[in-house]
Recover the amino acids of this structure.
C-alpha cells in the first residue's frame, strides 16, 4: 500500500511538471506590447493627464498586497515608476517598471515585469502586469 502511494505521488509530480512545461512560455521578462507570448498585454491609453495617471498608479501600488514602490523619476520623456512585486509562496521578487508618457493628447502606460531569479517565471510576470493594469484601470475613468 505504501509503495503504491509513493508511485502515485511521483506520477502526480511528473504530471504537474509536464503540465507546467506545456502551459507557460519559457521566459522571465514580460512587457506590454512586446511579448508575443502574451498578446493580451497591451499598453493602456487614458484620457487623464500624465501626472494624474502617475498619482493613480502610485496610489494603486500602495494598496496592492505584496507591491512596493522603489522610486519615481520624471522628465521630458515622461514618468517612470519602479516597483517590486513579491510572490506569495516563495517570496521571490520581480522588478516592475511602469512608463507613463503623453502621446497625441492622451496618456500611454506601458509595463515591464522581470524576475530577479530563474529563467522561467511560470506566468508570474504576466500576472503582475495584469494585476497592476487592472488596479490602474479601476482608479481611472
Amino acid at each position: 500500500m505504501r509503495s503504491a502511494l509513493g508511485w502515485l505521488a511521483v506520477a502526480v509530480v511528473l504530471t504537474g511538471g509536464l503540465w507546467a512545461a506545456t502551459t507557460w512560455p519559457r521566459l522571465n521578462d514580460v512587457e506590454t506590447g512586446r511579448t508575443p507570448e502574451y498578446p493580451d498585454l497591451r499598453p493602456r491609453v487614458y484620457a487623464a493627464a500624465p501626472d494624474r495617471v502617475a498619482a493613480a498608479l502610485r496610489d494603486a501600488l500602495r494598496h496592492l498586497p505584496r507591491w512596493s514602490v522603489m522610486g519615481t523619476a520624471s522628465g521630458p520623456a515622461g514618468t517612470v515608476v519602479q516597483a517590486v512585486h513579491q510572490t506569495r509562496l516563495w517570496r521571490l521578487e520581480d522588478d516592475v517598471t511602469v512608463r507613463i508618457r503623453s502621446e497625441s493628447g492622451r496618456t500611454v502606460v506601458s509595463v515591464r515585469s522581470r524576475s530577479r531569479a530563474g529563467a522561467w517565471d511560470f506566468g508570474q510576470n504576466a500576472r503582475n502586469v495584469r494585476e497592476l493594469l487592472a488596479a490602474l484601470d479601476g482608479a481611472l475613468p
User: Anything to note?
Assistant: The mean pLDDT is 91. The first strand starts at residue 29 and ends at 31. The first helix runs from residue 2 to 23. The domain at 25-139 is CATH 3.30.310.80 (TATA-Binding Protein).
